[in-house]
Write a structure and sequence with these properties.
By secondary structure, the chain is an alpha+beta fold. It has 2 domains: about 80 residues, no CATH class; about 100 residues, 2-Layer Sandwich (Muramoyl-pentapeptide Carboxypeptidase, domain 2), CATH 3.30.1380. It is built from 8 helices and 6 strands; from the N terminus they run H-H-H-H-H-E-H-E-H-E-E-H-E-E. It is globular.
Amino acid sequence: MGYDQALARVTELRALTSGAPAPAATPTPDSGSAAAFQQQLAMAGGNPTAPAGGFTPEVMAALGGGDPYAAMQGGGLSAQAAMLGQLGMGGAVPAAPANVTGKTAGLDPELLQRLDAVGRELGAKVDIISGQRSYEEQARLYAAYQNGTGNLAAKPGTSNHEHGGAADAYVNGVALADVDGAREIAARHGLHFPVGGESWHVERTDR
């Protein structure tokens, strides 16, 4: 969940609990800063137990002292989950995936958790070599595919990588689906390999 979605959800919750329409939180020109994010959160009715204008120690620990806005946009799963938990939107905060490494920023948290479960059953780390991509990055990969210098790639604007719904995953240098037993384990956790000839490309079956 990104910054704008988090703010929208907070305002919805505030409206539901108060019975009155919640004021819209309008981003400030410097909304990319931690201070601006905290100000927006306060406007939207953030957690009253947090320090004034800030986040709880648990959230800041998850961030490693970094920028909350940046973490919400594409940071680690634990930081995002901790912030959503502070806002009262996430219930129990899921543990950061211990069995997934590599380019996890911006990936669907549920996809990460399922890959974590696969790695746990395999007894090995699942390494993401390509996760969430920008439109521009997808366009470069597609151009390389078109001119014969790259792997199969979807047209920009159509790839599940662009919204964090797909990952290219390996285990000890072997494409995930080619690892002994990995297809069956992945299927049990709601994952599949929908692109023919790409045994590294994994997605959720329910998306």
